[in-house]
Every structure is written in C-alpha cells, then in structure tokens.
Amino acid sequence: MRGKQGLRSKRERTKGSRARTVPVVWLLLAVITVAALTVWACALWLPDRAPALLGAGGEATSAPAGVQEYSGGQQVTVVPTMSADRELIGNATGTVTTDWSGEGLTSGRRAYRVNDRMVVALATASPLYRDLKANDTGDDVRALNDELNRLGYRSSPGSNRYTWRTVQGVSQLMKDNGNTSDGSLALADTLWIPSPQVAVGSWTASQGLSVTAGSSVGSIGGTIVKLAIKNGQPSDRDRTITVLGQSGTLPAGATEVTDAGFCAKVAATPEFTGMPKDARSTGFDATVTLPEPIRVLRVPSGAVFGIDGQSGCIVPASSKGTSGGRGSDDPVRVTIIGGELGASLVSPTDASGASIDPSSITRVTIGRALDGLSCGR
C-alpha cells in the first residue's frame, strides 16, 4: 500500500509542477509579443533619423593633382577614302608574248612583253605621251628625270631637258629589263602607272592576245587619297600616326591625313593590297603618338569645367611658386591633352597663353565649389 501511495503522491507533485509551468510559458510569450509590437509601432510611426555617428561627413572640395609624362600613345581606327578605279592605257601594238601583271605593277620593272619588246611600267608625275630623245624639253621630260632619279638611275632631277645623263639612265633602265636601247625613250616601251606600286584589278593584255596602242590593257583599283581617324579628337600639336607599318605626320588640329606620299605608301603595303574591300570600308588599326613625351597635369575629370572642344578650366586649390597675382581660387585655362581612368590630362596656361609649370599646382577644386564659376573666355 505504501508503494502505491508513494507513486500516487509523486504523480500528483509532477502534475502540479506542470500546471505551474504552463502559465509561466504563456506569460513569457505575452511579454515577447508586446515588446515586438512596441518596436514595430515605433519603427512605423517615429520619423527616420540617422544616428549621429552615421551622419554624412563634409563634402570633399579639393583633390590632389600630379605631374606625369605623356606620350599620347593611343590605338585608333582609320578609314580610307579611295579614288575611283583607273584604266591603264597601253602604248604598244602587237601580240602579248609574256605577262607579268599577276605580280602587280612596279615602276621601273617590266609589266608585259609585246612581240619582242618589254613594256616597262613608269610612275612619272605626269603621264608620258610621246617618244623622247636627247635635248627634248618639257614637263614630261622633267617627270621622267625625277622618276629615273627616284629609281636610282642617272638623270637630271628637276630639269625639263633630256640631258646626256638622262640618255644614260634610260639606256640602263631598258637594258635592266631586257630591251636594247640607244638612250632614247620609245613610248611603246612604257606603261604609265599612277603610283610606284599598284595591284591590278582586271587585265586584258594576257599572253597570246592582241593589243592596240591607245586601248586599255587593264584597270587598277582606286588608291588612298585620305585616311581619317574614326571618332578622332584633334590635338593642338603635331602627332605621329603609324598605319600598317608606315609612319607619317598627323597635323595639329587635324583628324585625317591627306599627304599623297604617305597615303601611297600605305596603299602599297601587302597588308592593304590584300585586304578585302569590306574590311577597308570599316577601317583598320593604327597608332597615334606624340613625337616627344610632354609633361602634363593629371587631375580628376570632374575638376575640369567650362569645356569647349579641347579647352577648359580648372581651379587650383593650392599652388606653389606661382606669380602674376593669380589667387589660388581663380580659374586657370587648360588645354585638354588626353584622359584615362577617370582623370584628365591637361596643360595649364596663364591669361596670356603662356604655359604654367604643371608642378606648381598640387591640388584642384572639385564638386559644388565649382558651381557658378566661369571659365572667363
């Protein structure tokens, strides 16, 4: 009996303990719920206010400026403007016995043979139109003298007279190409081409065919008359442009090259002659650099204001060794030389247009401090 009574007593105690625990749990849940609702209500109805420690700091009004060497090197795309296709007019009559046009035409070298005479291509400044001999004069003679000189033969460059030196040069030119010569120049032995090297587009003077003087023997594609930089920006100084291994001058203020000699060199490169027409029309790679590196001032892009083309202004926040009564908060005119990685490379000048030493400016004004300022042009 005692065992049963003890077991009953233990169960009753456990049951009583559980009964007491349940109200405590509910009480805790009620407290947590009320607290959560209170926090939610505060967040909903109280105005937003950032903690004092998280308040916005003062806005930056200046930034460092530095000096660097700038070579102006940049990759660009150039698009050529081509002249119209040209017909090549032969001067010989007879049967074509040999044809070398497939290799392209080069001034001073044989192009094809009619009967037993070699026809030599010549890129004279003006087309030849008559037979020439000693003591003849004229602009065509001057053009012949100049081309013989360029090819390395004896001649009288700049002279409009067919001199004894011209006779010697023509004689050697013809012998080098397989013709006999007494030093006079037979028009039938020549084929005029517009540049020192040309690629043949179509050709009718093929081996075994008959040709007639004054008729077309073929055509060549147009040559380059202009190379324009796509989306180019002009510079206030001359730059060097390199296209397909050929280097020339890109004049100050220009974004295109029209120099006939340079264009001819580019047009004669194997890379260009073998380039499909659609590739030419979309453009090809080139590089632009300054002939000599220059010292420029590197500033944040946002420090330059009042931009007009390649000109603008900055406001030095501090300077050293400056003169002329310029205050540190006065706008300074600059020429924009280039830009990279969020920075502008500029060349500062004073009111008279004279250059200012870039190292004299160590900080520049940025942000709202520039509001309302005028570049003073």
Summarize the structure.
This protein is of the alpha+beta class.
CATH topology of the largest domain: Muramoyl-pentapeptide Carboxypeptidase, domain 1
Given helix and strand content, the structural type is alpha+beta
Largest sheet: 6 strands, antiparallel
Number of helices: 6
User: Strand order, biggest sheet?
Assistant: 2-19-24-23-21-20
Alpha carbon gap, first and last residue: 116 Å
- The averaged pLDDT comes out at 85
DSSP summary, beta strand count: 25
Domains counted in the coordinates: how many?
4
CATH architecture of the largest domain: Orthogonal Bundle
| The CATH fourth-level homologous superfamily of the largest domain | PGBD-like superfamily/PGBD
Helix content: 10-25%
Unreliable stretches (pLDDT < 50, length at least 5) are: 48-56, 321-327
Shape: elongated
**Radius of gyration over C-alpha positions, nearest whole angstrom:** 42 Å
Layout of secondary structure:
Blueprint (H helix, E strand, L loop, with lengths): L1 H44 L16 E3 L1 E5 L3 E9 L3 E4 L4 E6 L5 E2 L3 E5 L2 E6 L16 H13 L12 H13 L13 E3 L4 E2 L1 E4 L6 E2 L4 E5 L3 E6 L9 E5 L2 E5 L5 E2 L2 H8 L2 H4 L3 H6 L1 E6 L4 E7 L4 E4 L2 E4 L1 E4 L12 E9 L2 E7 L11 E5 L12
Parallel strand pairs: 8-9
Antiparallel strand pairs: 1-25, 2-19, 3-14, 3-18, 4-13, 5-7, 5-12, 6-10, 7-8, 11-13, 14-17, 15-16, 15-18, 19-24, 20-21, 21-23, 22-25, 23-24
